[in-house]
Amino acid sequence: MPRRIPVVSDDELAPGQRKLAFVEGRGIVLFNVGGAICAIENACPHNGASLANGRLEGSILQCPAHGLRFDVITGCMPAVDGLRLTTFPVSESEGQWFVSLDTRNEPR
Q: What residue numbers bound the domain in which 16 lies?
């Protein structure tokens, strides 16, 4: 059974905002994209650069180190096969958002 770790409440993350959380030694960035919460590992698959401060346009995040772009919802690069972010499932219960660490989509 996946471990669900509480990371953010509904009132902490408005649309367009993000939060860097440290969960069991891992940096995880949560994004509110149009009311949907998504979670990625805070490491670019290209060279491990922090993604927490990357520019976000809609659901597309640009890595601040080398400019690679990723969809934070799917983890994929838009319109190309290439590197992929590690994403984590999130779920909501009673105003609290949880990230599931045992179930993740590893980069290819």
A: 4-100
Q: Which of 54, 56, 27 is nearest to 42 (CA)?
A: 27
Beta bridge partners of residue 33, listed in sequence order: 36
* pTM score, whole prediction: 0.88
Calculate the CA 64 to chain-centre distance.
Answer: 15
Instruction: Please list the pLDDT of the chain residue by residue as tens digits (108 residues).
Output: 668 898 998 889 999 999 999 988 899 999 999 989 999 999 999 989 999 999 999 999 999 999 999 999 999 999 888 889 999 999 999 989 999 987 556 554
- What letter represents residue 19's amino acid? K
Domain count within the chain: 1
Q: Decide if 39 is inside a domain.
A: yes
Which residue matches tokens 């993740």?
Answer: 104
Q: Residue 106 domain-assigned? A: no
Is residue 25 assigned to a domain? Answer: yes
